[in-house]
Protein 1
Amino acid sequence: MATSNDLLIKQRSVIEFLAAEGCSAANIHARMKTVYNKMCISDCAVRKWVRIFKGEDSRETTLRDRKRSGRPLFTSDTAHREKVDCMIRAHRRVKQKEIADEVGISK
């Protein structure tokens, strides 16, 4: 099953193709609604992407979302995991703050 990000990219591709053919945003949304049902993006989003693909919006026309700075969704590596596991096995009542300070990770 496709992830939600993959589904968005597919829908943006459909919008780009149909906008290039000259279809209106309302027509594109109606056609997409029959295919994607509840997973279809909103009419407002279709109109936004049609404007972008037709060049009426000054934004860049890429299908994928750009990388953004900020906190990563998750981090997990075996070195940190093993250190935390060893600390917990050595002292079951170790505090979360002590683990974070020792390993160098956030709480």
Protein 2
Amino acid sequence: MPEITHLLFDCDNTLVMSEDLAFEACADVANEILSKRNISHRYTGEQLIQDFVGQNFRGMMISLQAKFGFEMSQEELEHYVKEEENQVIAKLEAKAEPCDGVMEELDALQESGKYGMAVVSSSAQRRVKASLKKVGQAQYFPPDDIFSAATSLPKPTSKPDPAIYLFALERLGKNADECIAIEDSKSGALSAIRAGIHVVGYVGSYHGEEKRQEMIQLLTDLGAEVVMTHWSEFPDCLKEVEES
């Protein structure tokens, strides 16, 4: 197997505990859209996570239109994409925290100098950068190595589309088998796997042992080579992939 030279990190609930905060804001915007159309259904942040985890807001709105049978103009969609981004960033800048144990691992990786490190996210680049800055992780990731499916691509998309990983590989000048992606969701893992990248799964951000075990099974079934429940396991997971 070629030597692993780059680590590609998902951001939301992999580096930064952001999903609960983001989905609170997202639910407010989604409910406004439904209310405007006299659709009685209302979402909580938790319900949105269950339905749409791993998708960015644009992807969620496409799914929402299909689920409730309505259409949004491109202009209206772009308005709400920006509105949701603003509301999420405000919450993240106030409350975001790093995932448990990740700072120690990022410190060790940076000190070793062995791997290039990049962020590959479905979320808008402005949101990703706000998250990383709030929790003190911006120092680990050069601005040009933060890739967003919502912002970086000529045509915005969302994981599980592999486009953002393929774009990151091209920009980094790397082959897929030289990289490992760290992902916490089905859509994120599928995106990396479809791009041919090795995947380490992470389930430490899920609440409750039952849910974590369910996600371990799901990520393993999708093709993650190893799954960790805490960031302290990362060195062993990395070694296991490199030696496989």
Protein 3
Amino acid sequence: MSQTLSIHHIYLSKGHDFKGRFGKERRNHEVSEVESVECVAGKGLVGDRYFGYKEDFKGQLSLMSMEAIGALESELGLKNYRRSDFRRNILLSGVDLNALVGQIFRLGAVELEGVEQCKPCFWMDEAIGEGAFAAMAERGGLRCRILRGGILGKGQVEMEVLEKHDG
């Protein structure tokens, strides 16, 4: 059974701001918002920092829900930040992303495996606002492998779970 979701934002960054930066200052690589992106099986998103990062990488694409972002904005009183600061590739609404951990699903023409929840890092308090690191627990998004490539674009998209793995 499929359901209709909405893709609100698609972000790409050519570099890492936080990865490997413990005890150092954040880098500030530009984040670009695009209308659509090419998803390449086993590689990632064309133009993103994780494209071709390593074989079988579990974060070839990251998703975050607008519902979680709205809750964080309300709880933390967030005003002066950019949604791209979450460092997730695709912000969408209409699905419980945590329920997709361990599932193979189709988003439009792209087939994904939901590998694990995105765990926030301590940098989120600096990037988003005080308290963001703790508040993002269990709602930081979903890391995915791309099993079959295609193009994802902003707007409505059909999602269908193809395989359920219960353990």
